[in-house]
Amino acid sequence: MADKILSISRRTHATPFTRRVEAAGVKGYTVYNHMLLPTFFDSNEADYWSLCQDVQVWDVSCERQIEVCGPDSERLIQLMTPRDISRAVIGQGLYAPLCDEHGAIINDPILIKFASDHWWISIADSDVDLWARGLAQGYGLEVKIREAKIWPLAVQGPKAETLVSRVFGDEVPGIRFFRSKMLEFCGAEMMVMRSGYSKQGGFEIYLNDPDLAESLWDELFAQGEDLNVRAGGPNLIERIESGLLSYGNDMDSSHNPFECGLDAFIDLDAEIESMSLPALRKLKDSSQHLLVGLVFNEAMSFDDFSVTVDDRIVGDIRSQVWSPRYQKHLAMVMMKRDFLSLNSNVSINAKIGNIADLPFDFNALR
Amino acid sequence: MADKILSISRRTHATPFTRRVEAAGVKGYTVYNHMLLPTFFDSNEADYWSLCQDVQVWDVSCERQIEVCGPDSERLIQLMTPRDISRAVIGQGLYAPLCDEHGAIINDPILIKFASDHWWISIADSDVDLWARGLAQGYGLEVKIREAKIWPLAVQGPKAETLVSRVFGDEVPGIRFFRSKMLEFCGAEMMVMRSGYSKQGGFEIYLNDPDLAESLWDELFAQGEDLNVRAGGPNLIERIESGLLSYGNDMDSSHNPFECGLDAFIDLDAEIESMSLPALRKLKDSSQHLLVGLVFNEAMSFDDFSVTVDDRIVGDIRSQVWSPRYQKHLAMVMMKRDFLSLNSNVSINAKIGNIADLPFDFNALR
After folding, report:
1. For chain B: N or C, fewer Cβ within 10 A?
2. 0.90 surpassed by pTM
3. What is the rounded distance in angstroms from the CA atom of residue A158 to the CA atom of residue A198?
4. ipTM (interface predicted TM)
């Protein structure tokens, strides 16, 4: 398909950073949580190398924060996730699939606890606020649910710690992975977490004052000039090489967490009130699919996303990209489990590929 | 802002019609309910004249149908809407705002009743299925909720009845507005309703077999050649001229239906169990805003969407477009009600505009 224009309207919300993103020469967007998410500035590949070698600033305002406050907050959030949240630490980010009463994945957010009666759900692309509101209303819970006035800005890449330290000070290097500190910028305190949707290292700054957006952006670029700082966004090449899942792409509400390799985030034996646990206990050993990697030694162009063995359809390509670093075509595929034990060669468009575990182990693939 | 590319992925779902849409030369998309919605093929203005003079075929698969089945279906749907649905007729479409317990608008779908235990919610752009699932779970209702395997195709324009009759037969002209019939195409029965997101007249065909999508598209184009049939999509010029609301643009969950002029769809006095009615009864005479029209005699280019009087901000432009037919710049504005009684001249960027009722009355404006 040739490139198409995105028709932008109020419904595809701009962010407090959009003017700077535009000035930085953004070429593509996607729409994520009803908001503009920049996808590339130079090209996917040039952006990839910049991310892996230097440092990038990403407008990820679309990572909306669903704020849940009130005495029943923790109960509501525990109902929504099969991960035991009882030992969450204040200021910690917790990757936690949200699952419904059938065990289906509704979203895979980061949960952030500020107090037992004050949480953020940092969501992937689905209207989790509506689900939470429906549950709260139906169960009669005492909570307030709103989309918080927060616009995250990610700083990602090997030089991210240097850059964020220059702007937010000496406490930055001491922040551990998925932990945060409240740090000051222009007199305002905002949360800075070591996190982000890449495996190149970095931070997410939870901007809480839209009037500071452009100053923050400008300061990062001024302080990062010698670090080759660039504008960027979640990069398809890097995220697939790194095996980072994308809700809506690799899995959706037709899948359960065991099909996505998320077993580690499901506390099947916990004595918690989580609406999906009864279903998940039954699904544990009976789910039919598994998300795996698929590797081709040449660049592929797909007309058909079905993966076959002996003309039987055994899997479905969910995401895929050419890796310039490894010179392989990488895909994430929802495969029938039955097949996985039998064979590791499959074909697509008559080309032979190899099944691989996720995340990809490139030492083994060489 | 210069045009930007839409980065398309599995998450921005293609539809069964996408190959034909692409072959027809689509130039722009938006993302609506996580799905591609074609926005223009030639230009907004050329598409507008084609829609108003001839007939267009629109891929509106993104009008997802949330199917609610089971003994508590009608109860759940009535909980979600303040419109009394008790007298809905089988096969009828019912425009019905969905509102939460605070009276906020969650969506403004068309409800379609097949039986008291079988409904479709034909949704605007928000994940209503999640809200419905949360409510059903919390209230313990006996319902099944799923996104139905339905991909609506709209045929719109003054020649739409002729074209749809050629493809679906003699029963088509007898279908009244927002009523439907089950009609046959290639041996499959599908719902054909007189409806659609324009005021040029037309039908929506609720395709229920994706394998027939391209045959249906091709048949409409083959039978419509002498009618100048073209591919199109919801047209910004036509929908604003016609005063059709767009959820997410003109209003969102920060508004109540009285602010959007939807009073006629709220049955304040009905003895029904609808979760928003208590709040709406209080809001009826106290809502602070009203969505109105705004008319300028010259084309405008906005940097700032604030509407002012004497340097006070009194309104917020939600949608706007140049009307080539009326040679006016038209906007839909969420205005402070206090101001509306005082004056009908406002300014934006130092240009003077006139407040108008919605839908616009172009005879009065001339």
Report:
1. C
2. yes
3. 11
4. 0.96
